[in-house]
Each structure stands twice: as structure tokens, then as C-alpha cells.
Amino acid sequence: MSVSRESLFLNDLYSSWLRRSEGMDLAGQRDMFEGWHLPTIEPTDVTYEEVTANGVPATWAKPLGAAEDRVIVFTHGGGFVTGSRFSHRKLAAHLAKLAGVHALVVDYRLAPEAKHPAQLEDCVAVHEWLRTQGYNAEHTATVGDSAGANLAISTVFELAGMALPIPAAVVTLSPWLDMEIKGLTIESNDAVDVLAKRAVLEMMRGMFLSEPSEATDPRANPLLRDYTDFPPVYVSVGGYETLLDDSRRLVELIEKAAGEAVLDVVEEQQHVFHFNAGRAPEADQALNRIAQWLRTKLGLA
Prior knowledge:
- This protein is α/β, with parallel strands linked by helices.
- The protein is built from nine helices and eight strands.
- An eight-stranded mixed sheet has the order 1-2-4-3-5-6-7-8, with helices on both faces.
- Helix 3 links the parallel strand 3 and strand 4.
- It starts with 7 loop residues before the first helix and ends with a helix.
């Protein structure tokens, strides 16, 4: 299999980031990672609206003609340390447009200023706000990439633990779940993954968690959860990712609990290759598959 020329835009961006990041302080890294939006072509016929959801900043992405009572809550990646609703706005809008729903992109608090579980608390607050705005849980899905995928899963468990209504479905894009960082592909895919190197993951984990022991806290590490009665999950991941094993283990856990999971591995693709939406066929086709799945789970198909 050969990847499209267009998909290499993301490879080149990641390579430039690794070169530039040496010796860079956190503020510089955050500025650099805001460039995550650069591969993503601006989707047409989408409007945006800034809101504050229970004290949490967020951005609505509202595609023209979308179902106004269906929503995906999108939690951005960036290792819990970088990224924002602005870096991920266009990606969320592409998926929302394909699925025919609205997307709410959450700007949860970042580490190290706000350690775990502050991010999870913000996500729960957003879902509570959505209920007050008339959005039903059964018409809601959580979606996230990388660290945001961790939150997309953990938020559902947190809501369930609070005896609150849980979303109908979960979508994870290139999820980073294992805070112990012990997946087999961390080493086996190191030579082909351009960005998610062990050193990068360890640095971000160190800022996210207050204590090393929290790496085995199920609230931070969804691979230590019991997925009995969990909503259906769609996992989309690149074949070249060091974090590929996180996706495989997640699906194994869900299937062991007799749950529903889809594992979609797109060969030779990088971490969150979905950022190439509107640019590369691999990203567009993967997002279209996710969107069609989401429509069935949200009662639109």
C-alpha cells in the first residue's frame, strides 16, 4: 500500500515540530501545536459560535442543515498539555458536517497548571450544561483524538459513576490511553511514527499526573476499566502509530465485556492522520466511515 501524496503534509509538519521543539519552553510548544489546524482544509457551510458551558470555554461548529438536537462533544488532543478548541475546530467541523450533527469543541484546562483530574471535571461540567440546554444524552456522542480520546472515554465512566445519563456512543481517533506507556507498538513502530515518541509521551504524562502512581488510576488510564454496559465505541487509528497497541487493547477489553467496538486501522498513517481532512483521501474516507457509524448510533440513519 502506498499513501497519497497529500497525506504527507502531516508527516512533514510533525517532522518540523520535532526539529523545532528541542530546547523549547512550554509556551513555545503550545504555540507550535496550535498549528495542528494547518493540514485541515476549512469545511464549507459551517458556522462557529463561542460559548461558555458551565464555566468551560467551548466552540460550537454548526454545519448548514445539520440536526440541531444531535451533538458530538469533541475533546482535543495534545497530551493534556497543548491544543485547544481552535487547533481542532476544523477537524471537529468536518466530522460534524459528514454526520449531519452539531459539534461542541471543549477547551478544558491544561496541565501542568491544572493536573488530573481537572480535565475530566471540565468535561463532566460540559455534559451537565448540555442537559440544561435540552440536549438528550441518547442524542449525544463523545469524540476525541489522542489525549482527548482518553477524555472521551473517561467522561462516560465519570458520568455513569455520578448516576448521570451517559452518551449513546464514543469515537476515539488515535487514542492515547495507557499512562504506563507499555504498549508493544511504542517500540515496534518507533521508526515510522514521526511524532508520538516515547520521550514526548513521558514528558506530557509527567505534566498531566501529580504522582507516578496515578498512571494506574483508572480515571487516567482507561485500559484499566471494566467495559461492561459501556456504549458502542469506534476506534480509528493509523497503522504507523506507536500508540496503535492502545487501540487494539481497548477493543479487546470491550469485546471481552461483550460490548460493541469497531477497530479501523488505516495502514501507513500517522498519529491523528484525520487532521488531513479535506486534503487527503485517507482522512476523508476514515471520517466518512465514522460519520456513517455515528448517524446510526444517534438515530439519524
